[in-house]
Amino acid sequence: MRVIIKDNPIEISHEAAELIIKQINKDHGSVLGFATGASPVETYKRIIEKYNEGEVSLKHITTFNLDEYVGLSQDNVNSYYYFMQDNLFGKTDVNPEKINFLSGKAENLEEECQRYYNRIKECGGIDIQLLGIGTNGHIGFNEPGDKFKDIPFPVKLTQSTIDSNRKYFEAVGDTMPEYALTMGIGDIMRSRKIILIATGESKAKAVKELVEGEVSPSCPATILQMHADVTIFLDKAAASLLGEKK
Ligand code: GLP
Predict the structure, then answer these.
(1) For burial by CB atoms within 10 Å, which of 2, 92, 97, 182 has the most?
(2) Atom from ligand 1 closest to the CA of residue 200
(3) Has residue 219 been placed in a domain?
(4) Residues of the chain below pLDDT 70
(5) Residue identifier of the C-alpha nearest atom 9 of ligand 1
């Protein structure tokens, strides 16, 4: 696990974007796993900048996103699909046919999860998976629990996740869904390279657990300790508890 601590979140976004751009320029048909939430936004901005400067084209990449809320259609402002259109896809030359998403509107959620698993496999697996981390240590929507899940699955969100994310729904007068679909821990771990971004004091406890804690499904992110190629980008606030006794 490589832990990189930077003074400021902008430096993080530049380095994370650089790793992704390098991958795309090495293999134009790369398969990239993207995340939503505030953590990757600056990284996406940097990729867009580099795209506008002609330094990278996303035309041939295939994308998979980590998760989606159950019940939200792609044109709902709070769907993760909408987020990706708004923050990356719609501002670059990503081919819409190569965008893969879990559908929160699927009639049969189990079948939808199986379809997504098969699709990742058909595409040869994920070259780089970008991640954020929840304040409770979740990655994607793999909430703390008693076992690590392998393949995509429907999940009931924890109160802590609802408390962190409901502001986005309240802002438009909606109630936050209680269920989501997410890639499993196995899907994430099968990615050839993983980049996790965490900034701000609210992530410090989860980051300490991720880097120094025992590997346990009670903090799903700890599994990343077992992956051969993980880079964790932190700002000073998110890294502030590292090295301190519990
Ligand atoms: C959300 C997403 C995760 C994200 C995390 C942190 O619930 N499902 O993929 O990494 O929570 O979000 P943020 O970056 O906004 O803090």
Answers:
(1) 182
(2) 16
(3) no
(4) 245-246
(5) 140
Asked whether residue 240 is assigned to any structural domain, the reply reads no
- Cα-to-centroid distance, 97 and ligand 1 (Å): 25
Reduced to 3 states (helix: H, G, I; strand: E, B; else coil), residue 228 is coil
Q: What is the pLDDT of residues 109-132, one digit of tens each?
A: 999 999 999 999 999 999 999 999
Going by alpha carbons, the residue nearest to atom 10 of ligand 1 is: 132
State residue 152's pLDDT score: 98
- For residue 104, report the phi and psi dihedrals to the nearest 5 degrees: -70, -10
User: Which residues carry out catalysis?
Assistant: 67, 136, 138, 143
Query: What tokens were used for 126?
Result: 């994920």
User: How far apart (Å, rounded) are the C-alpha atoms in residues 224 and 1?
Assistant: 8
List all residues whose CB is within 6 A of at least one atom of ligand 1.
Answer: 35-39, 66-67, 132-134, 140-141, 161, 165
Token pair listed for 12? 């993080």
What's residue 244's pLDDT? 77
Q: Could you tell me the CATH number of the domain that includes residue 64?
A: 3.40.50.1360
Cα–Cα distance measured from residue 206 to residue 157, given in angstroms and rounded to the nearest whole number: 17
Structural domain boundaries enclosing 14: 2-131+139-212+226-234
pLDDT in tens, 182-223: 999 999 999 999 999 999 999 999 999 999 999 999 999 999
Domain count, the chain: 1
